[in-house]
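Researcher: Good morning. I'm working through a list of sequences from a screen, and I'd like to move beyond sequence-only analysis. For each chain I'm collecting a predicted structure so we can compare shapes side by side. This is the next one on the list. No need for commentary yet; just the structure.
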Amino acid sequence: MFTGIDEVDWASLRHAYGSAEDVPGLLRGLASADPAARETALDGMYGAVHHQGDVYDSTLASLPFLLALVASEAVPERGGIVELLVSIGQEGEERVGDDTRAMARTAVRAGAEVFVRLARDPDPEVRRAAAGALVRFLDAPARVLDLVRERLTVERDDRVLLALAEALGVFARRHPGQAAEAVELLAAQSAPPFGPGLRLAALGQLAGCAPDRLPEDLVPTVVRLLRERSRRRPCRTGEPDRPETDTLVGRLRRLRPSDEEGSQLLRTLHSALDGRVEERIALLVGQLSSPDATDRCNAVWMSMGLFREWRADYREPVALIGAQLGAEGDRLRDAALSVLEGLLDLAAPAADHLHTLVASRPDLWIRQWEHGAPTLGTALKALAQCGDPRATTVLAQVLAGPVVPNELGRVVVDLGPAARPLAPALRHRLGQVPLDSPDTYDRAAPLLWALGALGDVESVPQVLRLLLGMPDGLRSRETVVESAVRALGALGPAAGETAPVLRGLLDSGSAVAAAAALWAVEGDAAAVLPVLLRELRGERRGRSAAAEALGRLGPAGRPALADLRRMAAADDLWQRTSAACALWRIGGDRETEIAAPVLRGAWAANPHTRPTVAECVTGLGPVAEPLHDLLRAELASPRRHQASLGGYGSHDIADDLRLLRVCREGLSGE
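Model: Good morning. Structure tokens for this chain:
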């Protein structure tokens, strides 16, 4: 297996962490008799030699030895090594000028004959992994199909049969001209007398390669098969003992769902159905209504992918996810909370369930961590983020307690007008923030955002205390100043007494924020124009912010028009966008010819610009009618505006909901 390994100059090769001189030890570790040593070695291969899917010269040098390892029946647990080979050799995003991935693919294909033998290996985990390797690397489609068909007739292990069904789907997508027989085999497996697991696997593959072969009653069929499979779900008592290693491989194994197979079956189907959103919602409802808690848990975890990518009416599945909060056991409850926290006001159908949990479990209001600051409990956070006023009373109790998570201020902003009764307590907390602490920003900024959003004029003394009392040289002092200044600007003319302080900041590093706030408070263009023009013509970093502030001046910003026209032709997309918005706000109809094409181009070039552009169009009213078609098209689109960017997290949904809200406002007069 290791013939020639010492002749390779590993020290001259590289992996993710530098010299590859440790790779021979990792390769030998894969053949160790000690399970913990094997797992540590596999973790090292993924962590360094194939780090995050990358391929290095040391990866190429390892391939002959990896192929030799999987060919030897003396090596235990070769299935994991086969999976590593599949990952190294499969198609991926190749960097310009870097052909190592293509070389890796060629090398694995050159050794692909070994997968033919492995498809008949005594170890079912090896046979399972080999099924996918066969269809990806053996360059003889007819032979591959014959091999898979043969294995289907003799295989008895359920998990290997599922892998063979997946292999047929991969084959059909890779070889569309020869896909007919693979599709027929999948269609046969999707019907009786095959068991529910294999039928589900076949349906998932058909959805991806031959959707016209799916049954008309797809959702009822899948739900029925899922429940039948759950009743038959075997107890995996024959699983080999696994070492408790502190490796990524070990941690991922421990984090796997209790029914990973079922989770994968339904995830495959959901992914293949893609934009067939009504069917996916109906399927989720069926899964979430299952008597089996494991099926419901799998459905909860799957739901977020649908919610993040597609716009639809999710009231029914969200309400069912909320119902999981009353389930026994933490696993299902925590999964439901994790999803609901990311939905913001889309979580409203689950608000009653959230409130019930919050009211009955005060111990969940705050999460204490071994390392790091305490945070709000997920249930309370989700209840507040969906705008439910019942969160106000509980947040008031948290504010009165000895531990107040810093993020509470951010959550108050999401809660909206219902949070107004919290203003005195927030104001009091702001007055207690130390002026010279390393965590002044972490404590003060969320409170400043909240008080500004609530329009709390009575907080002005506490805001001024921060502005005037922080010592020079304090970490994050400038960011605290900007947060405080924005809070004053949000108060508008009611904060008129702060104008002298804001004027004193016009020559500081927070000049743009101070000028914008001074305009909001006092409306003195003569005071702020010179500052904003200076910043607009200055360093690249502050130009977009200066343009945005100038746009708020409206016609009073006319002295900046020439600079903004030049900036609207800049190379930087965000500078062009902010300049065009400001041009249009200041010059009105006369700047349409320049501003409208720039904003239309930004909208198409980068979906992240759409909320900014939509707010500009909405604020301009009838003047921006030439871009109303963008708003109408966005409202008609079923996909969230950042879905194609691979966005992940509640911010994607929050930005999208904000965009839709602004688009509706912009078209409300039509």
